Amino acid sequence: MNGRRPISAALLGAALLLVTACGGGGGSDTGNDGKGKSGKAGEDTKASAAVVTVAPKDGSKSVATSGALKVTADKGKLTSVEVADSKGNKVDGKITEAGTSWAPDHHLAASTTYKVHAVAKDKDGRESAKDTSFTTLTPKNTFIGTFTPEDGSKVGVGMPFSIRFTRGITHPEDVEKGISITTEPAVDVEGHWFGNDRLDFRPEQYWAAGTKVTVKLDLDGVEGRDGVYGKQVRTVKFTIGRSQVSTVDVKTKTMTVKRDGKTIKRIPVTTGKPGYDTWNGQMVISERLKVTRMNGETVGYGGEYDIKDVPHAQRLTTSGTFIHGNYWGGDAFGNYNASHGCIGLRDVRGGYDGKVAAAWFFDQSITGDVVVVKHSKDKTVSPDNGLNGWNMSWADWKK
C-alpha cells in the first residue's frame, strides 16, 4: 500500500458539482451552438427611443398656476404621469388617448413646489422616465369668498349656497371650476352670477328635506381676474332641515304656514300700506334677530319711523324687508295693511310672551325657510335682493 486514502464516490461527485456550478458558459443555457444568451446582450441593454418632455423646465420658479404644466412623449407613449406637491397631494390629470400628452384636470395651487414623475414606452416596450420639479408663483394680489350658510348649519329648503368675493371676478368660468357641490341624495345644482362678485348655487326646485350638501372650495391659485389669485381651500357641509314654506296673502292679510306640505297654522298679518307695498315673490329668511332697531333713514324713508326694540325680526331682503313682531299695530292684523313694506305679526313689547303669533313663528323658523308673498300691488322682488334667486326661471338661472 502506498498510504494514500481512496477518494470516495460522494466526495468526487461533490467536487464535480462545484465545478459545474461555478464554471462559466456551460450547462443547458448554452444551446447546441454554445453561444448562449450572451449573443443578444446588446439588444437587452439598448436605450428606449421614447423621449419624455416636461414643461415647465426642471427647477423653474414663479410658474403660472394654469396652462403651464404639460407632459409629452415623442417616439413612444406615456404610460404613467404622477404629479404631487411636497405634502403628497396628487394632481389629477389625463393621458390623451394617443398617449402623446398629459395635462392636469384643474389649476395648481400658488406658492407650491410640485414634483413630476413621467414614464413612456417605445414601440418595443422599453421604458424611459423623467423626474422634474418646479414651483408656482406667489401672488401679489389675492381674493377670497365669504359665504352662507356656514359649515355645519341646518337650514331651510330655500337656502342657496351664496359666495361673495372680495374682488370683482373677470374670469368667472375659472372660478366656477374651483367650486364643486355634491349632494345626498343627488340633485343637479347650478350656479348663477349676480354682477361680478357674487355667485349663488341652487337646484331647480327647493331642496328636499334632509338633503346633505358638501361644497368644496378649491380656489387657491385660481386667477379670478388678471393678476389676482384665490387663496382659499375649504370644505363646507350643511344639511337641509324639515320643509317650511309660509305664504302671505296680501288681500286676505293672512299667512299660511306649511310644514312638510301640511298646514300647521294660519296667522293674521299686516303688510305694506298703499305706497309702501310689500314685494311679491319667494323670499328666503337670511337673518334672525330676537330684537333689532328699525330706522326709516337706513332704507330711504327719512324720519318716518325709528323703533329701537323691534322683536322677533327675520330678514327677507337686503333692502330691508323683514317679517317681524309688531307691538304697536293695534287691530291692523288681519284687518288692514299698515307697514312700510314689512310683514308684521302680533307681538308684545319686549317679546316676552311666547304664545303670541310673532314669537311662535320665530321659534318655528330657521334660516333658509321660505316666505312667499302674493297678491301685492308691488312688483316681484329682484332675485339678487337677498337670497331670492327662486324668482328667476331655471332656464335664466343657468344662462
TrEMBL record:
Record keyword Lipoprotein present: yes
A GO CC term attached to the entry: extracellular region
UniProt region (Disordered), positions on chain: 25-47
Domain of life: Bacteria
Entry keyword set: Acyltransferase, Cell membrane, Cell shape, Cell wall biogenesis/degradation, Lipoprotein, Membrane, Palmitate, Peptidoglycan synthesis, Signal, Transferase
Positions of the catalytic residues: 324, 342
Biased composition (Basic and acidic residues): 32-46
Keyword check for Cell membrane: yes
UniProt cross-references to SUPFAM superfamilies, sorted A to Z: L,D-transpeptidase catalytic domain-like
Molecular function as annotated in GO: acyltransferase activity; peptidoglycan L,D-transpeptidase activity
Domain L,D-TPase catalytic per the UniProt entry, residue ranges: 244-374
Annotated metabolic or biological route of this protein: Glycan biosynthesis; Cell wall biogenesis; peptidoglycan biosynthesis
Biological processes per GO annotation: cell wall organization; peptidoglycan-protein cross-linking; regulation of cell shape
Signal peptide: 1-21
Name of this protein: Ig-like domain-containing protein
